Amino acid sequence: MKPNRLHHRILGKALLPLLTTLTAGIIAYPALGDDAPQFRGTNRDGIYKEKGLLKTWPSEGPKLLWKIANRGEAHATPSVANGRVYGMGLRGSEEVVWAVDVKSGEEAWSVPIAPGTTLQAGQGGYGSRSTPTIVGNKLYTLGVSGEFVCMNAANGKILWHKNLVSDFGGSVPTWGYCESPLVDGDKVIIAPGGKNTIVAFNRNTGDVIWTSAVPEQDGAHYSSAIIAEVDGVKQYIEFLSNGVIGVSAKDGKFLWRYNNPANHTANCAAPIILNNLIFAASGYGTGGGLAQLASNGGNIEAKQVYFTKEMKNHHGGMVLVGDYLYGVDDRTLTCLEFKTGKVMWADRSPGKGSVVYADGNLYVRSEDKTGPVVLVEATPTGYNEKGRFTPPDRSGQPSWPYVVIANGKMYIRDMNTLLCYDIKQR
């Protein structure tokens, strides 16, 4: 399923009239310490550092500050930075990136980056999956058919673009490209899959710094890269089609792989790393495993510590809070002791969904079409629910985007709609 050449026209002359109407300068925003500038928060681990948030919710849920429509069809989680919320969506025949004001929800700009996705409902459908990554005045994101762009975050002007299929020989996964770009210093990392398994670009110019051909030439799947340092070696870790792999951040050299957590259908959840221990899991009856990364004659070897069927995590992700891992095992919210895999508790009441953490609580968003958002205490002693509510005017589609927490607010994407809640303790 290769994108047609229309994306070149959209990103070429067809965009010029639009871009000339956009503000050329950079809008100066105050630096906000609790922004969420990329997928799963500042450290890409689902842990939001904010304090002073509501410890319980009223029966109707937190106060809704605003709700806006016309975000485009998408399963994409938004990001928050510099006084704006950034996201993606399919609007008619175009895949667009947009920015809205955090105070009012009013749209600041929207710019098309590619023709509308050819994915159908049976393939998950509904457009974009990637979360924009914001660094300074630049935005990086990935279209569902492989259009990888760097944009001016203030006005949406496209600064450079690549296509992972036509430029790097990648192959669009069954449910589309989903990765959220990883920025590390002057590099931005993305996985086309195949012969150029992972590519590091100069984030300012778009020039290729290195390409990494992983031995099995794994295809791209649905997870996003994380950074780790093991025995003094900085590396990028990706969950690809055949397993979890690590490559050197310096030059892309392949370092290690751990295949047991892969299901070969859809590997979605980001791995969790603590020092030299890495946990990865997937659904479709597979489960998760903890591996220890250790140097071995100049190479790194992944030695499995344990494997468990009690964390068959599909695409809702997991968080590590202290010594305990929280995530949804199929449809059961589960707490595991990270280093042993021991089940501390399991409860089905929130349903299958995504999990993030802030200020002592888990924010669990059910993916069910009429499912709730649930606040659960992050404790290994047992399931302790602190509140739940169902956002209004549900789309009737699966609610796969994660909850985002930034500057005392909670953002929820429901297909074409974005909602903003006040969760600050007063």
Give short descriptive properties of this protein.
426 residues; mainly beta; 5-stranded mixed beta sheet; 4-stranded antiparallel beta sheet; 2 helices; globular; disordered N terminus
Task: Describe it.
With 426 residues, the chain is an all-beta fold. Helix content is 2%, strand content 43%. The chain has two helices and 33 strands. It has helices spanning 6-10, 16-20; strands spanning 47-48, 63-68, 79-81, 84-91, 94-101, 107-115, 133-135, 138-142, 147-152, 158-163, 182-184, 187-190, 198-202, 208-212, 226-230, 233-239, 244-248, 254-258, 272-274, 277-282, 287-296, 299-308, 318-321, 324-329, 332-337, 343-347, 353-358, 361-366, 373-377, 385-389, 404-406, 409-414, 417-422. The strands form eight sheets. The chain has a five-stranded mixed beta sheet, with no helix packed on it. The radius of gyration is 20 Å and the shape is globular. The N and C termini lie far apart (51 Å). Mean pLDDT is 90; it is low at 1-31.
